[in-house]
Write a structure and sequence with these properties.
Length: 403
């Protein structure tokens, strides 16, 4: 008689447990389900409980997504990002870096390039600061000596204030070392003397220049430089020029002391003896002469520019005595092989031409028109002489141009 009431109480207890809210539900204010007249099976109660959990989980997920979306909109609208370093502070971390602005680059391109070299923290911030602080001044093409991790304001000041705080140095292509020294001394308004510059160049090894170079000739890269006046000395200017030459060699795939000597020496000859459009062809001709000691030119380069460099003059014409002088280590008429070293500082285009010369059958070249740069090539000396006559005829018709 007592077993049936006990079973009834057990079922009621089970239903009560199913209907009772969990601790989390109680804290959320859910009181559970109260049964009045409705008869609900235990399976239905469990299903209802699962649905309640699903609804609550869905609601929480939707709420979280809404919070994330609102957060992203807020960050984008007000440009607030705790993980983004918008700007560095001060004038840099002391690590120097050469930065070049190419002709025609936009402010956005310059800003991105500054970021890639870790000079600034954020391109957008730099553009904002430039627009506010440049006072209408433009960013001019040239190479600037900056530091890594500078504030945008400091970079803007260095780039646009060239008239007040910057030494502007412009070295044309084909300039010799002594001519470049004069250009630097003049550009620095006497604050860096010729003596200081020559002293700074007296130990080429300090700049990482191989020992097989007789001097720093060939390493003072042509181009425009804008260097801060404050804290600048002769050595920093020389470092900037050498750094650009090293960058050109790397871009052209040139490495190793002997290979570097050969490329810079040949490139300096090519640049003075040919028009840019003829660099690769003339580089191939020089190789033909050097690699064939029993060929048309008996292994002689025969460059007027090398001879005049050794003489310390500039001229289009040489005497037979000058061409025969073997004591001139730069005389490529009298001495086979390369001269003692470069005869000027070449640029990237001539370096690339020498690193990848044209494969051609020629041994001679001559520019027959100095105005158009027309150059004619030949395999034999006899053919070459006809083109030399054309050049001489042009010189007669253009008095004073060939001296």
């Amino acid at each position: 008689m007592t077993e049936e009431p006990t079973k009834q109480r057990t079922r009621e207890s089970s239903l009560s447990e199913l209907l009772s809210p969990t601790l989390a539900e109680s804290q959320a204010g859910i009181r559970g389900i109260t049964l009045e007249d409705e008869v609900v099976t235990a399976r239905e109660l469990r299903a209802r409980k699962r649905r309640r959990h699903t609804i609550m989980a869905t609601a929480l997920s939707v709420f979280a997504v809404v919070l994330i979306v609102l957060g992203v909109i807020f960050v984008q609208r007000y440009d607030i990002n705790p993980f983004k370093n918008r700007d560095y502070s001060g004038s840099g971390n002391g690590e120097p870096v050469s930065f070049t602005i190419e002709q025609g680059e936009s402010t956005a391109q310059i800003a991105q390039a500054l970021k890639e070299k870790d000079i600034i923290a954020d391109p957008g911030k730099f553009i904002d600061v430039y627009q506010k602080e440049a006072n209408g001044k433009t960013l001019k093409a040239g190479t600037y000596e900056l530091q890594k991790q500078m504030s945008s304001s400091s970079v803007v000041k260095n780039l646009v204030d060239s008239d007040n705080n910057i030494f502007y140095i412009a070295v044309q292509q084909g300039k010799r070392m002594n001519e470049t020294v004069d250009i630097i001394a003049k550009a620095t308004e006497g604050k860096i003397s010729r003596r200081d510059i020559e002293a700074a160049m007296s130990h080429p090894e300090e700049y990482g220049i191989p020992k097989n170079f007789p001097s720093m000739e060939g390493w003072l890269h042509p181009g425009e430089y804008r260097i801060p006046k404050e804290g600048t000395d002769a050595k920093k200017i020389i470092e900037a020029m050498v750094s650009r030459t090293k960058a050109d060699l790397q871009e052209a795939g040139v490495s190793g002391d002997q290979r570097t000597f050969e490329v810079l020496t040949k490139a300096s000859i090519v640049e003075l003896e040919a028009q840019p459009k003829d660099y690769v062809a003339v580089a191939g001709i020089i190789n033909n002469r050097l690699n064939n000691p029993k060929g048309e030119t008996n292994g002689l380069i025969q460059s007027d520019a090398t001879v005049t460099y050794g003489l310390g003059v500039r001229s289009y014409h040489l005497t037979e005595e000058q061409k025969a002088d073997k004591n001139n280590k730069y005389n490529t008429y009298a001495n086979t092989g390369l001269p003692a070293g470069p005869i000027a500082s070449p640029g990237l285009s001539s370096i690339k031409a020498v690193a990848n010369p044209e494969n051609n059958p020629y041994y001679y070249w001559v520019t027959v028109d100095l105005d158009t740069g027309e150059t004619k090539y030949s395999r034999t000396y006899k053919e070459h002489q006809k083109y030399v006559d054309e050049y001489n005829q042009w010189c007669e018709e253009h008095s004073g141009r060939c001296k």
